[in-house]
Amino acid sequence: MIILGINNMHDASAAIVIDGKVIAAAEEERFTRVKHTRGFPKNAMQFCLDFAGIKIGDVDIICASWRPWALRVRATQALKSLFTSPALFRAKTSRGMGQMQNEWAELFRFRRTIENHFGKGNYKIEFVDHHLSHAASAFLFSPFERAAVLTVDGAGEADTTALWIGDGTSIKKLESIRLPYSLGQFYSAVTAFLGFKVQSDEYKVMGLAAYGEPVYADYIGKNVIKLLPNGLFKIDPYFADYHLARDGVFRKTAIDVFGEPRKKEEEVTKRHMDIAASAQAVVEDAIFHVVNHLCKITNLDKLCMAGGVAFNCVANGKLFKKTSVKDVFIQPAAGDAGCALGSALYLEHKNTGRERQFNLNNAYLGPSFSSSDAEKALKDMNIPYEKLPEDILFSRTAGELADGKLVCWFQGKMEWGPRALGARSLLADPRRAEMKDIINEKVKQREQFRPFAPSILSEHAHEIFEYYHNSPFMIFTFPVKKSMADKIPAVVHIDKTARPQAVFKETNPGYWKLINEFYKITGIPLLLNTSFNVQEPIVCTPKDAITTFLNTKVDYLILEDCMARLPG
Q1: Are residues 495 and 207 in contact, defined by beta-carbon separation less than 8 angstroms?
Q2: CA distance 409 to 155
Q3: Do 119 and 199 sit in the same domain of this protein?
Q4: pTM (two decimals)
Q5: Which of 94, 101, 104, 99 is nearest to 247 (CA)?
Q6: What's the confidence (pLDDT) of residue 447?
Q7: Is 366 a member of any domain?
Q8: Residue 490 · residue 451 · CB < 8 Å
Q9: At which of 311, 330, 349 does a domain end?
Q10: 154 part of a folded domain
Q11: In terms of domains, do 540 and 467 share one?
Q12: For 19, left (φ over 0), alpha (ψ -120 to 50), or beta?
């Protein structure tokens, strides 16, 4: 059976599953070159079809990870707001009408939309509940035969948080929290209050939180996010309303507590850091509260998570200390993009009854390019290069990194999800404290408080991190051991933590060999790894890579087996 799954909302994406196995998956933004692209993911769909070597007529089911008719709760919430705040009503209805005219309209005329781009076929059209798609993306790709499953995001059709139990190929909902009580929307509202972009910059709040103190956490915990005896929570949605926050409007109650909201270009102060720390602390407490309840009612200590809130790697790393879970699986595209994959695999098992055949142990599901593709792109753009045997390429690159050079690294299949995991990465020496400022200022053009992550040989991870848990997708934060923190300052955050990617020889042998060569030279089994992009989506093609490389002050570009140096 061939199933093509799509998400056409925030972080539009497509994925293809054939006979229970994931063949390909990609986010639309990598092709459009526009971050967080919304709408029909025609380019990602075309990639999936091309990679599988099929046409649209070969597909059995095309599914979307939303049920467009199930919007009663959202409509009811919008109508209620009319009686409490005309401004809120306008904000909700304005955004809702925009979606109705675009993304929701695409789903209501889904077959026609597909046919307009790809032609007709005998495929069946299916719509899968959004949070069920999240749950499937978490559990059905996990190594667990039975697990507790938690999905937490801004909002699906109605749910914002859902508790599930996964068993074999079955996923059963146990409880849920519905709009307007949303941890994701609360965190996004705080993101806007701090002058950052909603549904884009929440990770900045998480990074900024380490610099502050949770001085407002007590107030938020007592008055805004209230943990309930039944293991769930309620939120005062009017304290910092998500929809108003998107428009830069904040209520007096929030301003009385936090002070004036930060303007986009305003300096980040200690007060802003404290707001971030407070929001982070209270959201963490709510997550731990729900996880402990979920583990109790399922009597399970294995947990799968998905939804945008599952990208909160600081909270994820604390799960092992703050809850009863012993093992956690979070797939690399835990946000809405991952729903394309989740909905497809859910329908695979529902329609075939087939046993699970696929564990997602790596994120390399995107486009790849040959050595000749790389050479052609370099020649077309007049970039001088050397074509090198693998051993020489890796040893020379490791030597340049050890000498303080920056390297753009483009190898193999592009990563699935928002993290660069050694296929489309910018690499540097983690021993040099100045690397953090150099990359932030001269390459990434971003805020100084933003941390960088390490890619580490999987065999050595326990030597570097406290409470380490398997982390192939750079989705957990752990304390760095005191004996190591001073040796790798460029990847250690101000709170002495880091967000590692464990690199396995079996799943990315080339990247593993590069890090191992660096280890031979320096005695340090890891590299500083950040995404290969500059204020844009991560690069996808050789042409993207060269264009971005030329707009930086990076020393070298490794494009498959070609080594190019910055001209001049």
Answers
A1: no
A2: 36
A3: no
A4: 0.94
A5: 94
A6: 80
A7: no
A8: no
A9: 330
A10: no
A11: yes
A12: left
Q: How many domains does the chain have?
A: 3
How many residues belong to the chain?
568
CATH of the domain at 7: 3.30.420.40
Q: What is the CATH number of the domain that holds 488?
A: 3.90.870.20
Are 295 and 406 in the same domain? no
Return the residue matching tokens 């990609």.
26
Taking Cα atoms as reference points, which of 274, 270, 185 lies closest to residue 224? 185
Regarding whether 352 and 377 lie in a shared domain, the answer is no
Give the tokens for residue 390.
């693998």
Whether residue 536 is found in the same domain as residue 424: yes
Q: State residue 225 phi and psi, 5-degree precision.
A: -105, 105
Q: CA nearest 338: which of 257, 417, 444, 268?
A: 417
Q: pLDDT tens digit string along 79-101?
A: 555 555 655 555 555 555 455 55
- R_g of the chain computed on alpha carbons: 23
- In sequence order, the 6+-apart residues with CB closer than 8 A to the CB of 430 are 454, 488, 489, 490, 491, 524, 526, 527, 528
Task: Specify if 430 maps to a domain.
Answer: yes
Three-class DSSP labels, 386-440: EECCHHHHHHHHHHHHHCCCCEEEECCCCECCCCCCCCEEEEECCCCCHHHHHHH
Return left, alpha or beta for 492; rule: phi > 0 is left, psi -120 to 50 is alpha, else beta: beta
Q: What is the dihedral of CA 109, 171, 144, 311, to 10 degrees?
A: 50
Average pLDDT for 170-195: 97
Q: Where are the beta strands (DSSP E) in 179-229?
A: 225-227
Q: Could you tell me the CA-to-CA distances from 453 to 41, 261, 430 in Å, in that order?
A: 30, 29, 9
* pLDDT tens-place string over residues 397-424: 999 999 999 999 999 999 999 999 999 9
Q: Is 150 contained in some domain?
A: no
Do 549 and 445 have their domain in common? yes
C-alpha–C-alpha distance, residues 339 and 95, integer Å: 22
Q: How far is residue 533's CA from residue 503's CA, in Å, rounded to a whole number? A: 21
Domain assignment of residue 285, given as a range = 177-330
